[in-house]
Amino acid sequence: MTDLDQLTQSLARNxxxxxxxxxxxxxxxAARAGVSRGMIxxxxxxxxNPSVGTTVKIADALGVSITTLLDYEQxxxxxxxxxxxxxxxxxxxxGSHTSLLVGAEAPGPFELWGWRLxxxxxxxxxxxxxxxxxxxxxxxxxxxxxxxxxxxxxxEGASATFEAKVxxxxxxxxxxxxxxxxxxxxxxAR
Length: 190
Fold this sequence. Notes:
By secondary structure, the protein is an alpha+beta fold. It has helices at 3-22, 26-33, 37-44, 52-62, 66-70, and strands at residues 87-91, 97-104, 110-117, 122-125, 133-140, 143-147, 150-154, 159-163, 168-171, 178-185. It has five helices and ten strands.
């Protein structure tokens, strides 16, 4: 099998998988991507090798990267993110910060975060799409978790989870830094 054959087979398999996971009909994906239904059928049946432009349109319509759509590695994949490659999303002069540690796209986006909040600092979040869940574990200090205006104390060593479809705040009312690990599970795009 040539590299092109392998890529065509991989694209066919991945397109069908992602379209099914997203719950899109052939017509719905064609409309979202701006390509013909016939083109999607030909790609899913590995009868054509679409242009890069068409592949990008389809990946965008599915909400995945072109790399994910074209990936033809076999077997379980492990992605290691070195500490220096974690993405610092925000920080304050006092030393609070949050970092996106790692993420995945199946069955919907899934993210793992590292948090550090200094005493007296807080971070608020707007509601996320329904079906988004946050799971957190406090490694040091005490977190004041405010979900839909209700406060919850999450002590060191404790964990919490909630559907994040309402406003929420992470706050450190203590005198020591608060550190936690948080996972965010986002439902697939529909």
